[in-house]
């Protein structure tokens, strides 16, 4: 077990349980209280990235140790083989084994260097809140703490989140805008109720919203305050203390922290901002996709009896024909069609029929007395024309786009 001598010399390392955040989602249309979260929360994001790095380092270390051990075993076996050959006096074999032994000794030396390099790298790895060791905060006394929401259902947690934000949103936003360590610490000491996961949840959503709105500088400010809150919360979990009691000790420690600790903080901050940018882009892409799907549904609903979109057909008509439909002037349309090449006229009239812009026999009644019509829509209210060959009166319909 390693210990963080630079910040908490005697705190035993304990991994934080993030499982309760697995199913939280962020809603794209959340109200101002942000009762739901449809993205993996800050807690899981940062923790997962850190765990991945630790797992990769662990695998690398295990691989090096395994290869180094195999090299040592083979080296020892070759030495014994050489000793046995010396007693037999087989010069040719002795020469060959000596060369092999030299190669193995060189390999073994390289593996030792690799082990030393990994040990040095592990020693220099910046500390983070998952690897803090236990300490009693010098003379500071902190009461034991039991998480408030430990036994709540997801629905109950959502309701509490909504009530909390409704009550504290103004103060949360003030906290999010503080730029100095001293100001942040003083504000949290005056508003200790904000030191909880509900505040962190809100800050995550707020940061994503700001990035979606392309307000990147504000996003980075809120992201910084989110990481401050998260460091305090994870410290409290590691110590099994009330987060509110960890505010003053945290800021006392961070003001005196060395370079390694601040590097760790900023590393976490950079990772979080990267996640925010990614989630914001995913939200934008999802919204664009949903808008396209909605437009396609509307288009499908407009399709005429021949499967054509009346809006698209109208826009493809010659300007003279468009004017006829817009003015709902049948005689004008007949004149325009009469001046066109027969093939062109037939092409456009067929498309008008297939899209529902023109309804042949539109003046006829069906058995229920309803006029024949067609779905479609051009500029709100459409004219539905009869078959001019029959000399019947036109039928007009109001059709929504």
UniProtKB/TrEMBL annotation:
<keyword id="KW-0963">Cytoplasm</keyword>
<dbReference type="GO" id="GO:0051087">
    <property type="term" value="F:protein-folding chaperone binding"/>
</dbReference>
<dbReference type="GO" id="GO:0006457">
    <property type="term" value="P:protein folding"/>
</dbReference>
<dbReference type="InterPro" id="IPR013855">
    <property type="entry name" value="Cdc37_N_dom"/>
</dbReference>
<comment type="similarity">
    <text>Belongs to the CDC37 family.</text>
</comment>
<dbReference type="GO" id="GO:0005737">
    <property type="term" value="C:cytoplasm"/>
</dbReference>
<feature type="coiled-coil region">
    <location>
        <begin position="277"/>
        <end position="304"/>
    </location>
</feature>
<dbReference type="GO" id="GO:0050821">
    <property type="term" value="P:protein stabilization"/>
</dbReference>
<feature type="region of interest" description="Disordered">
    <location>
        <begin position="360"/>
        <end position="401"/>
    </location>
</feature>
<dbReference type="GO" id="GO:0031072">
    <property type="term" value="F:heat shock protein binding"/>
</dbReference>
<dbReference type="GO" id="GO:0051082">
    <property type="term" value="F:unfolded protein binding"/>
</dbReference>
<dbReference type="InterPro" id="IPR013874">
    <property type="entry name" value="Cdc37_Hsp90-bd"/>
</dbReference>
<dbReference type="InterPro" id="IPR038189">
    <property type="entry name" value="Cdc37_Hsp90-bd_sf"/>
</dbReference>
<dbReference type="InterPro" id="IPR004918">
    <property type="entry name" value="Cdc37"/>
</dbReference>
<keyword id="KW-0143">Chaperone</keyword>
<protein>
    <recommendedName>
        <fullName>Hsp90 chaperone protein kinase-targeting subunit</fullName>
    </recommendedName>
</protein>
<dbReference type="GO" id="GO:0019901">
    <property type="term" value="F:protein kinase binding"/>
</dbReference>
<feature type="region of interest" description="Disordered">
    <location>
        <begin position="138"/>
        <end position="158"/>
    </location>
</feature>
<feature type="domain" description="Cdc37 Hsp90 binding">
    <location>
        <begin position="138"/>
        <end position="294"/>
    </location>
</feature>
<keyword id="KW-0175">Coiled coil</keyword>
<dbReference type="Pfam" id="PF08565">
    <property type="entry name" value="CDC37_M"/>
</dbReference>
<dbReference type="Pfam" id="PF03234">
    <property type="entry name" value="CDC37_N"/>
</dbReference>
<feature type="coiled-coil region">
    <location>
        <begin position="47"/>
        <end position="124"/>
    </location>
</feature>
<feature type="domain" description="Cdc37 C-terminal">
    <location>
        <begin position="302"/>
        <end position="393"/>
    </location>
</feature>
<feature type="domain" description="Cdc37 N-terminal">
    <location>
        <begin position="15"/>
        <end position="140"/>
    </location>
</feature>
<feature type="compositionally biased region" description="Basic and acidic residues">
    <location>
        <begin position="363"/>
        <end position="374"/>
    </location>
</feature>
<dbReference type="InterPro" id="IPR013873">
    <property type="entry name" value="Cdc37_C"/>
</dbReference>
<dbReference type="Pfam" id="PF08564">
    <property type="entry name" value="CDC37_C"/>
</dbReference>
